[in-house]
Amino acid sequence: MCVHALQDMHSAYSSLRIQGATNHHFSNYHTLPMSEKQRQQRLLQIQKQRYLGVGDENTTDVEWKTNVRRDTYNSLQGHSATLEYLTLANDAVLTKQQMRIALLRKMADLPESKKRPHEPEE
Amino acid sequence: MAATGKFVSDSPATQLALATETHIRLFDVSQGEFRPLTPRLPVQATITAMCSVPGARSADRLLVLSDSGNPTLLEYTPSTGQLAAVAAEPLCRSGVRRASPQQFAAADPSGACVFLTAAQTAACMYQLGSDSSNNNTPTLGSPIDAPRPECVTLALAACSDAAYPTFATLELELAGSDTGNNGHGPRGSTLAFYTLEPNLHTVVRSHTRHFHGEASFLVALPGGVPGNPRVALGFPGHVVVTDMQGELTIELPLPGRSDVVVAGAATPRITLLQTADGQLLKLVVGAAPDARGITPASLRPFDMLQVCTALHILPSGHLAAVPEWGDVQLLQFESLGEDQDESESESNSDSSAANAAEPQTHTLTHLARTGTLPTLNPLTAARFDATTLSVLCPAVQPHSTTPATRTLRSTVPFHTVVASPLPPSPQRLWALRASTSAPHHSLLVLAFPRATKTLAMADDAITELAPGPFPGGETTLHCALLQGDTLVQVTPGRVTQVQAAAPYAAVSEWLPPAGVRCVCAASTPTQLAVALSNGTVAYFIADAGAAAHGALLEAAARADLGGSAPITALAMGGDAKAGVPALFLAVATGDKLLSTVALHPDSASFLERTSYQRLGDVAVDVVCVPGEVHCGLRNGVYARSTLARGPESSPLDPPVFVDVTNRYLGGRPVSLSLLPGVALENVHDSDSDSEEEDEDEEDEAPVETHPCVVAHSEETWTWYASGGREYLRQVSLPEGIGALLRAAEVHTAPLPANGCVALSRTGQLVIGRFGRFPLASAWFAQQDSTDASEDEDEDETVAFPQYRTKCMLPMGEHTVMVENHIGKTHASRFSILSPVQNEPLPQPQHTPIPFGKCTAATLVEFSSGGSHLVVATGGGTLHTYALGARADGTFAPRLLHSTETNEAKGQAGQAGSSISALASFRGMLLASVHRSLVLFALGKKQLLRRFAAPLAPSAAHVTCLAVRGDALVAAGDLRESVTVYRHSQAEGDPTFFPVACDSVSRHVTALAFLDDWTLAGGDRAGNVWCLRVPPAAHAPLGEADSPAQLWRRREDKRLGGNLMEAPFRLELANHFYLNDIVTSLAVVRDVQRSGRELLVYTGLQGSIGVLVPVLSSGEARLLRGLEGAVERLEESADAVTAPEDVTVLASRKVPAVEGRYTLVGRDHSSYRGYYAPVRNVIDGDLCETFFDLPPLEQRLVCAAMPKATTPEAVRSALNLIRIDNM
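Predict the joint structure of the above. Result:
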């Protein structure tokens, strides 16, 4: 199932590169001046707001997996072929609409753990 | 997806737009039929939502949301018959995304704004406007974000009766959000209203209401109090009607068995809801409270239909039903169901008679079916016929519960009206009119070796004329009606011209010189050319003088083609339909030359050879169509020579040969017949047309006709062209006719279009007509096994199929179809389909498999006992059926035995316990049992296990097996891609050992070997790919090989052998995103004698496609360059600077919105590389759009290609692929 979420995550990371926050910058993060660090933090926060899959050092395992699962469920119900494939394979659900609602409910019902306590951002 | 609206300006009729994920098509449904307004328009993107946007002072438009991220407004252009993008705004990034507003779309009934929501949280609103400076083209304003909490959207509806544009959404709060719970226990649903404040330019979320039940459906109800719109919510077991202010809340229980509402449609006159079992319910809600303060409301059964994804009630009194599975239907309201009690009793009668729990059929009570649009969804199985590239697949018909099949043929059907035997050895025939102004043909001239017969056609009778216009004791070489209403006959000894009307008075006669005879001739209404045995051509023109009665006058000189080679065929070069004098004569001679001779008397080279071309063999027949000369050669090749005029050539001189393409049609010499005008489209395919239909056709506008060349070799073929695309397709003739020898166009009262009279190889005179010609826009003609027209009650019946096809297995000409019961009943059955009608053979029609649902099936030709069907059911049990073929072509299937696969039983409960893949291998059954490949032989009491080899350690569950010869087996896994195994008998111990595995996880759904070391497959994400075993692993299949030898040959030795599952890794050769899950895949060879191999696939949602191997690097470079240039067409158009080109672009009055050439502006390479970049696959659908581009755009594409070329060369290359491969 994770293959469906890959594209979203891939795009999120590629957007990071586009915005200038490159891997190179992150690799030398600790040697950067404070102003540059703050600028990158702001960029990251903007990316997090725009793209749900972007995490940070405080992202927990459950949060990350919840995102991946939600992307997966969304992709499964968002592509008509996979929705049809799942409906045909599932004897308990007879209509595509029921399967779509069931996937959307699963998307909403994933428990999201509380974030790990961390220092408040300025 | 579907949307209705008045998309055609100045037309009161309502149209229906139907969209799959990848194509859009517009239909006029106002007459109760599906009349296509546009062809199937490829979007080259994934459409996620679509709605109709009402136009205030213009036609309605379509709002399309797609994975391009651009909400796009499409407008119908009647002049071109296409949809054009008139507004597009980039909103979000591409892809199907969770938080991008692309999942739901609804338009305000006034057309003021549209509301878009994402699956999660995000929502925005667009105000619609018009650009007065640009021809009042519609515009989408800036998006206005809607304030929303963290939630999942389940449904969206646009409300009427509100002061401002208002939309209702059904939401589900996210677990863990501030307002939601923690994911434990049943969750409620939230109804929220979003209203646009136009003055403040903001969206307000208001009147939210939380319900404890799990609502799943929402529809806006018209007819409420102004300013307080109403909605209906579908909950498990009941429907709640409420309004925005919360003043009204009515809970209505759902009648019937199902407790879920899945679809609905509401108009001021009637509101229909549909439950998951197909029952239509009529919802009635009073406009105002009664005297007791209670608003009357009711929910009663109305009718039954297949479960729909969308219902649309049209102003014309029709209901458009788009079912989840099967054909789209158009139904007319017979009544609105006022007599509720009676209707309830009627609707229940059929159900109780058949089965109280699961009704199979239902008789429509308030609806009558008026139109059906066939679809192939779901296409779970198919069988391919390599000879004519036809596909046999299951059909879900709206009126039949039997396992109907649908045959898709890409041949030209020929429907016989009359066939009568003739005297021996008929050679040629001509159909003639009595005068040039006569609408119908009335004379048939038949040439025999030593005789000529003339038949008169009057009404439906054919009689022989005696005496006829021509002497009957001599054969005829050519016969035609000339200007002045005279008939000319060319025989070896003379040319005779007579009046066309009885008593057929002689007009003129011409005798060849002594010792010379006529060998062939060709004519137009004003010209006649007769080839003589001395290698010259005598040329005649009809005298235009009134006193001469059109008598033929011979030219002073004769065309001398020199040499000793005889002339074998002649053809007048010109448009036969246009009736203009021919400019040149095409002459084929015995020295394998094809020449052109100028015929214009003012030309400097009058009656001289102007150009010639070398052919592969002597031409038997020559015909001319505009721009081309077609030759049928003695060696069975059909040659098409292209003519072109040089820039400095005189307009009086004929064009010269520039190119020739050949196509092998068979072992016999190819003779040709020209049908000057056939209708390629809008042809009824039924065998018999009623008189009423004929009258209707006469009232219709004349259809466009095209020249068609009928080629006769071992089979009969037709060549035709439409829109620049050329086709060469086989003709499917009725049984008993074989192939045709000669054909001629005939128009009579019973055959107004596409009529044809022909001589068959079996010596019959055949009169019939051609049906629908395959075109790129509609490649296949569909034919159902059960003819709907035979059932008079089919318009009244709704069928609920109980079985769905699992697989179709080819068994010679027969097909074994295995079906599974739909739903929770564990039963399946199989039937054997007859080869011609593709219907189940009568005795027995279905053989039940009472052991459970079939998980896999295959036919095995056991070396010890003939053909058997092996079916795997749940739990890993194999059931072996002997098919019992009888001499009379029938079968008596019987169950031989059932075999428990012990390992599967022992591992019950694990994912791999059922058997999902079976194959025939070395005269035994190969099965993937749990985590091993097992070979079974046929035993008397059960299948006998020969040996078992373990699968690769990472294998999860094998979903398909492909076998190559006696040595190679490829196993496609549920999520671990493909592993290739090799059979080994080294050291006397038979086993399978892995040769190569994949490094990428693929969810394999179909698999086939292309050659010994190349595999093609499809996965669950909608990709198709080819994997290749590295060359180092190649070894002759016949030689004994051992795993140790293979491990030693591997090149990459960085990892130890104990860390690798197989010594080699499969290399990805090709990858392409189809956007449909491949369900069957097959390599078909020699389609229509092409000598090539094709990879044919079917997709789950009904797509059928072909992957053609591109053989030469030059061809690949051209096509890749074309694909890239078409992709970048918008950039090329934006960069146009030439003033005349800018003027042309500006004159089209199409605003330069992004995506104007691709409808929604999706980047093509991103779309086709959705999961992985496209690799070594060229998108033929995109290349084919070149034909539909205007001339300026075609030039821009050609200029943008890496190696600049001409539109003619591109068209020729594309036509060559279509003709040479399929």
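Chain B touches chain A through 59 residues (CB under 8 Å).
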